[in-house]
Design goal:
By secondary structure, the protein is α/β, with parallel strands linked by helices. Helix content is 32%, strand content 17%. The chain has two domains: 159 residues, NAD(P)-binding Rossmann-like Domain (Rossmann fold), CATH 3.40.50.720; 183 residues, Rossmann fold (3-Layer(aba) Sandwich). Strands 10-9-8-11-12-13-14 form a seven-stranded parallel β-sheet, sandwiched between helices. A five-stranded parallel β-sheet has the order 2-1-5-6-7, with helices on both faces.
Length: 357
């Protein structure tokens, strides 16, 4: 049995190999240990993006089809975060039976092509939930209290004592109404932290049981009502065709004057076009972004130079613990697959049984 650990410079191949070694240590008597080979993809030193031929591309992938096809020769399993599993790769690698993707969704896999080829695909929900939740709260605090701007000014030798003036002073999470758009693994953790700060927390998520939300001490509401009531809004929804530009000009206009908006989920959830005018007018008091409509933002990005914008280069999940959890989840899925057990997180469960080696 050959396994390819197609890592990158975050979820590294050695982390994947180590997790696989631990997971597959116990084998039936006489069984040969799997042969594990490694491939290092260039992300994050080179941004991810679409990979493949026009009309047959996968998204948020790293590396090339050619190098992956070569590395996958004879492999039955690929554990990866970013490898481009296109229809072309699948056709060139008929031995491939499982692709275990160490991220919240297998966007770098042509799922329809994998299903046609009988290749099982799994993913790793929640692997970065603690990191992403903590980062989202950090963005809220940074935006509310103008921490990055004050730091930049002080480094230039400017003491911004005027920020203590009443009209310039920031706000607190204690007593604030914070709206969470999406209440999955990350949103739920953010809500827990915000309640510890003393915030009133609202959540809009049509896929979550309202009684379960209430049990967390969070109020389930419709999205428009959440926007009307919330002084701070944080996005935690998945990006799908239905949620693209979920916060468009109409919905952004529902926010109360002086609201703070945070997006550390996916750039496509937010229509960026109205944002510069909203910030310059003060309708939005601050905007904190870790994800963008174009990544990385180009030099002529309209929000460059706009006041009260906090930015980070897609770092919400960037902790070492996330990398280790991602490796462990994919290794566990590989172990289940090789033992003939159902996958815990199948992306195409219809091929689960047929894909057994």
């Amino acid at each position: 049995m050959r396994i390819l650990a197609a890592g990158d410079h975050f979820v590294r191949p050695d982390l994947l190999r180590g997790a696989l070694d631990r997971e597959l240590r116990e084998r039936p008597a006489g069984a040969e240990p799997p042969e594990i080979s490694e491939l290092t993809l260039p992300w994050p030193h080179r941004p991810f993006g679409p990979v493949g031929r026009p009309g047959a591309q996968v998204q948020e992938a790293s590396g090339t089809e050619e190098e992956l096809i070569e590395a996958l020769a004879g492999a039955a399993v690929c554990v990866t975060q970013m490898a481009p599993i296109t229809a072309r790769v699948l056709a060139a690698c008929p031995a491939l039976r499982l692709v275990a993707v160490s991220r919240g969704g297998p966007v770098n896999v042509d799922l329809a092509a994998a299903t046609r080829s009988g290749t099982a695909v799994s993913f790793a929900p929640g692997r970065n939930a603690p990191a992403a939740a903590e980062f989202a709260v950090g963005l809220m605090l940074a935006a509310l209290r103008r921490i990055p701007a004050a730091d930049a000014e002080l480094r230039r030798g400017v003491w911004r004592g005027d920020l203590y003036a009443y009209e310039e002073a920031g706000g607190e999470l204690d007593g604030a109404t914070v709206g969470l758009v999406g209440y999955g693994a990350v949103g739920r953790r953010v809500g827990r932290v915000l309640r510890a700060f003393g915030a009133r927390v609202l959540a809009a998520d049509p896929y979550t049981d309202p009684d379960a939300v209430r049990a967390d001490g969070v109020e389930p509401v419709e999205l428009d009502e959440l926007l009307r009531q919330s002084g701070v809004v944080s996005l935690h929804a998945r990006l799908t065709p239905a949620t693209r530009h979920l916060l468009d000009a109409r919905r952004l206009a529902l926010l109360p004057p002086g609201a703070v908006l945070v997006n550390s989920a996916r750039g496509g959830l937010l229509d960026h076009t109205p944002l510069p005018a909203l910030l310059r007018s003060g309708r939005l008091a601050a905007l904190a972004l870790d994800v963008y409509d174009v990544e990385p933002p180009p030099p002529d990005w309209p929000l460059h130079g706009v006041p009260n914008v906090v930015t980070a280069p897609h770092l919400a999940g960037a902790t070492r613990q996330t990398a280790h959890r991602a490796a462990a989840i994919t290794a566990a899925e590989t172990g289940r697959f090789l033992r003939g057990e159902p996958l815990a997180h199948p992306a195409n469960p219809e091929v689960r049984e047929a894909a057994r080696p």
